[in-house]
Amino acid sequence: MTTRPFSLAGLFRLRRLQEDEAAGNLARATGRAREHDAVQARARRALEGFSSQPADITTLRAIAASRASYSSMLADLSAAAVQHAREADDATAAYTEAHSRTVRLAKLEQTHREAAIAQELRDEQIALDEIASGSWQRRAGGAR
Fold first, then answer.
1. How far is the C-alpha of 124 from the C-alpha of 118, rounded, in Å?
2. Which of 18, 54, 96, 126 is most buried (most C-beta within 10 Å)?
């Protein structure tokens, strides 16, 4: 006897694909955030290491302009870091939701599989009982 296929198998495959896609998006978002954090840390170290003594007013102005530029860049990097963190959080939430949908369908598939096996065992037991009953009836009929 063949078991009836899981009626939601196509949806289950789709959910697994969606989960895989969400996992990829999460990995990319996390990678971008990590990469951005490294860039921001390098920029902060560069600004902290910038301590020269100006020899004249022109050098002082150049140092001030450079520090202002670095400070502006750090502010931009901080804003971008917030955006990257938000994207990573959104990707995490999307992955969690996709994974939950996949797990729910996996549980349904497992329940279906267990029910199909139980039905096969019942059918097999009925067939064995019928065979045994027929054999018993033939022996009882032959003994008369």
1. 10
2. 18
